[in-house]
Amino acid sequence: DSYSPLLGNAILLAVSFWSQGRRAALLDAGLYALGRVVVVPYFATWDCSRASDLLEAPRDITVSFVGSAKNRPPYFVFRERLLVAAASRRDEFVNDSRVLIDMFPADDEARHSFARDYEELRASLYARSHFCLVMPGDGNTAGRLFDVIVSGCIPVFLFHPDSYPVIPFPRHVPWPAFSIIEAVETEDNVVAVLSRLLMATSEMTHRLRQATIEAAPLIALAL
What we know:
Elements: H1 51-56, E1 61-69, E2 71-72, E3 76-77, H2 79-88, H3 91-94, E4 99-105, H4 108-117, H5 119-128, E5 129-134, H6 143-150, E6 154-159, E7 180-183, H7 187-198, H8 202-219
Parallel strand pairs: 1-4, 1-5, 5-6, 6-7
Antiparallel strand pairs: 2-3
Helix pairs in contact: 2-7
């Protein structure tokens, strides 16, 4: 759901998987045999006049994620988010101002409020962050991915090894040029990823951010 007054629900057509894109969940019948997910873009606006500011403005947060964490086995478990939440409480990160990880309960009211009422705060957070974590929730992709890109934040996909990222427009958007994809199966895996991101050089972040900003018009529905 996009919660956009102009677009409403952005999911128009999809071939459903029981566990949101998990390979093991494919069913061998009917439409499931096609094994396809149709990614429909979420509403995102790109302001080309901000490109220079987004590239050069100082950013005080290295890694960020704010979102819900669901833990309702067996089907409704946001595994990657739960691992990130646990890793962020480790001693090496809990008092590090460069890491901003904030999870809230995944009840419908809280999630809808976050989507509808905190758009400006989310945009501000993404514009302050070098790297923005992108993880599965109820679906394999979400509006967050589009929002972080148009804010010049480098997307970092975290996926469990038995799943896979559903990346929009793979033939038109040069994802390898600016995004990072990491498989995380344990809390220690997440700790290693966060540590690498914190050690990223300014040259690396500048190069990836520039490529992210160059790709932003390709995923925006409004220019």
